[in-house]
Write a structure and sequence with these properties.
The chain is built from ten helices and seven strands. The protein is an alpha/beta fold and about 260 residues long. The protein has a seven-stranded mixed beta sheet, sandwiched between helices. The N and C termini lie far apart (about 35 Å). The model has no long low-confidence stretch (mean pLDDT about 95).
Length: about 260
């Protein structure tokens, strides 16, 4: 066991941190990395229990993840996709000196429907996946991949790409997967937004069925200096199907060195 997360450092230019979603690993960002590597030095993290950080002795909890990542990457904007967005938002809210800008990619401060938050998903979705992990691990991950791609204009291509990446770096650790589902079901960082001290980009996929674009719009409205944008025809993983659009949005948003 080790306490240091795996990070791929790729490219040249000012630093940018990329954080993947549940059950995936940093390698899933390959199409986006290819479009950004000539402009940024990308620090692509494998979260605890995932990819090459599978056996890292760091819990998949927001504060622990932020501390572990901040210890090994330079001061840089953080871009988080899905679950990775919760980690990135926690970092921007609690360590703005380390995270001068935040990009939320198909990510929400609160994934589940709640009072005054009508565009989240049902908590039962995450509980069903938690039950599925105990009964049929691989089939449950396959169902989650299908949910991520559902609605996308290029759903078949997106499912194929996600399935191809899923176990490239080995199987994610079952305890980390369970902890990740708990984070997705129970985290609510909405109260962090009004006090957010860094500029933020909220980039949604119009056809995303896991993170409703309207939830991202409402979140952006709560954060000072926030920018909200939508990629038409994209689902939950637009960096796979619309990588050029995602790259252009990031380049336009991120501060010029």
């Amino acid at each position: 066991m080790t306490t240091q997360l795996h990070v791929d450092v790729i490219g040249q230019g000012p630093p940018l941190v990329l954080l993947h979603g549940w059950a995936m690993h940093g390698g899933v960002f390959a199409p986006l990395v290819a479009r950004l590597r000539d402009r940024y030095t990308l620090h692509v993290v494998d979260l605890p229990g995932h990819g090459l950080s599978r056996d890292v002795d760091v819990p998949l909890a927001l504060e622990a993840c932020v501390d572990a990542i901040a210890a090994i990457v330079p001061r840089a904007p953080w871009c988080g996709w899905s679950l990775g967005g919760l980690v990135a938002l926690q970092a921007a809210a609690t360590q703005p000196q380390q995270v001068p800008a935040l990009a939320m990619l198909c990510a929400s401060p609160c994934f589940v429907r709640a009072e005054h938050w009508k565009f989240g998903v049902s908590a039962e979705i995450f509980r069903d996946f938690a039950d599925g992990l105990r009964s049929d691990y691989r089939a449950t991950l396959d169902r989650f991949v299908a949910l991520e791609a559902f609605g996308s204009e290029h759903a078949k291509d997106e499912i194929r790409a996600l399935r191809d990446e899923l176990f490239v770096r080995g199987e994610p650790a079952a305890p980390a997967l369970a902890d990740g589902l708990v984070l997705l079901e129970t985290s609510d960082l909405r109260d962090r937004l009004p006090a957010l001290r860094v500029p933020s980009l909220w980039l949604a996929g119009r056809r995303d069925r896991l993170v409703d674009p309207r939830a991202m719009r409402d979140a952006a409205a709560l954060a000072p200096g926030a920018r909200f944008a939508v990629i038409e025809h994209a689902g939950h993983a637009p960096f796979l199907t619309h990588a050029d659009d995602v790259a252009m949005q990031l380049i336009d948003f991120l501060p010029t060195p």
